[in-house]
Amino acid sequence: MQSHPSETAVPVKYPNCAGIDVGKKELFVAVSPRVAAEPIRTFPTVTAGLKAIVRWLQACQVEHVAMEATGVYWIPIYELLEKSGFTVRLADPRRTKRPDRKKTDVQDCQWIRQLMSFGFLEGAYRTPEDFLALRSYVRQRARLIRGRSRQVLPMQKALTQMNIQLSNFLSDLMGKSGSTILRAIVAGERNPEVLASLGSSRVKASPEQLAASLEGNWREEHLHELAVALRHYDFIVQEIEQLEQQIHQQLLRLRLAAKDAADPSRTLQKPGKNAAERQRQFRLWEIVGVDLTAIEGVGIETALLMVSELGGEVAAFPTVRHFCSWLGLAPNNQLSGTSLQRSKPRQANRLGQAFRQGAVTIRRSDTWLGAKHRRRLARMEKAKAVKATAHELARIVYAMINNGAEYVKRTLAIYEREHHQRKLDNLTRQAKAMGLQLIPENLVSAAA
Questions:
Q1: What is the CATH number that goes with domain 17-117?
Q2: 57, 80, 129, 176: most buried, per Cβ within 10 A?
Q3: Secondary structure (DSSP) of 366-408
Q4: What number of other Cβ atoms are within 10 A of residue 256's Cβ?
Q5: In angstroms, how far apart are the furthest CA atoms of the chain?
Q6: pLDDT for the residue 438
Q7: What pLDDT, on a 0 to 100 scale, did the predictor assign at position 1?
Q8: pTM score, whole prediction
Q9: How far is residue 229's CA from residue 161's CA, in Å, rounded to a whole number?
């Protein structure tokens, strides 16, 4: 009788590990049955419960801990475990799904521990500790900026209901002219001519047109709505200014901790509009080591977002492909053999979305990247072209940070010359395949 070799068991990579299923009220923790008579325990999410988890894991001689990135509930226990000396791996919830689709808190923590023990879990990206404060302030400011924009909607609604057609002549209701006129209305001014005189000379409408748009049906309830929205707007502006100060302090702290000293002789390729913007550009340059704002489509805000999310380095991503995949700018093709089974695009994260916005802005730029983006728009859907250009921007950023190389701007003339040469090479290759030869027109004329 023929004997068959026994199946080889999956080797255990981390025998002393634990898995945690994170919830809002409770944490389910699983360790190996070899180290505890009761390998699964439940702890409350209060601080005393988190400290009890640390003591129990230390008693079980656990070295590695894995958990899912569930909302923001994982942050307190993650930080406490990391501070206590454990090697903590934060896993993407998409990587911890059970094949049998069974799901309970007890089963989840056991499954996470088992995956971790075999080394099957890849850690999710987490911003370096030194940059967490900057990232938090930048994200808070982004939320407030979105909230500030939302306050303009009730202002416009109140004005429209009173038939004040100011938006017909002012593109930005909270610009210099619009803001001055709105504050005068809230203060009690109702004379259209007086209100129109408050507009800037840069307004394209004549004083008569502006005055006509400011004559309406003044109703107390709509004026109250306008005043409330304006107060909310002003409050948010004050909060944004305070966050700007916090961001400035964080950039100063990170600049002082940077390894390389600033080179006073260097100049910005795209200097900001004022001294504050230029100072921020230099701060970011000193932290990262390269001027990210030199890239077309990458402004100061995008560069700040990159630094706050990445921590000024890309060492966590082994290759540029890993980086683009994390951004959500790479294809998500799922193949079986040679056939494409599924191609569902990943959702771009904050930084990936910023790259997409940068790709949109370079459409009209007179540069190599702008010409390449316009060529993509001519032969594919807009969304695909934007994603492809965003992907290219991400590759440039990765190369700059990873290699410490400054960006070399390529002009439109360079792109057109390269494009012309590629077309010529293609035609030459096609002619050769057909047994023909391309002869320049000037040579034909000379021979005749």
A1: 3.30.420.140
A2: 57
A3: SBHHHHHHHHHHHHS-HHHHHHHHHHHHHHHHHHHHHHT----
A4: 9
A5: 107
A6: 81
A7: 43
A8: 0.84
A9: 15
Angstrom distance (rounded) from CA 422 to CA 122: 42
- Whole-number Å distance between alpha carbons of 30 and 47: 19
Residue 423 confidence (pLDDT): 83
The token pair at 258 is: 């940077």
> Which parts of 292-343 fold into alpha helices (H)?
300-310, 320-327
First to last CA, the chain: 89
Q: Are 262 and 153 in contact (CB under 8 A)?
A: no
Residues 373/358, Cβ–Cβ less than 8 Å: no
Alpha-carbon distance of 27 to 44, in angstroms, equals 6
Q: Determine how β-strand 40-44 pairs with β-strand 64-68.
A: unpaired
For 250-345, where are the E strands, in sequence order? 333-336, 339-343
Share in percent of the chain as helix, strand, coil (round to 5): 55, 10, 35
Asked whether 139 and 147 are in contact (CB, 8 A), the reply is: no
- Residue 362: exposed, middle, or buried by beta-carbon count in 10 A (0-12, 13-18, 19+)? buried
Place of tokens 């569902």: 344
pLDDT recorded at residue 71: 86
Look at residues 290, 318, 302, 320 and name the one whose alpha carbon lies nearest to residue 404.
Answer: 290
Buried b (16+ CB within 10 A) or exposed e, 148-172: beebbebbeebbeebebbbbebbee
Nearest to 226 by CA among 176, 161, 175, 168: 161
Ranges in the chain, pLDDT < 70:
1-8, 101, 258-265, 333-346, 348, 443-448
Structure tokens at 46: 């209060």
**What is the rounded distance in angstroms from the CA atom of residue 39 to the CA atom of residue 109?**
11
Whole-number Å distance between alpha carbons of 40 and 356: 45
- β-strand pairing of 26-30 with 40-44: antiparallel
Name the one residue in this structure whose structure tokens are 């010529």: 424
The helix (run of H) or strand (run of E) holding residue 151 is helix 132-161
Q: Where are the domains of the chain?
A: 17-117, 133-253, 261-335+343-403, 417-448
Token pair for 315:
């060492």
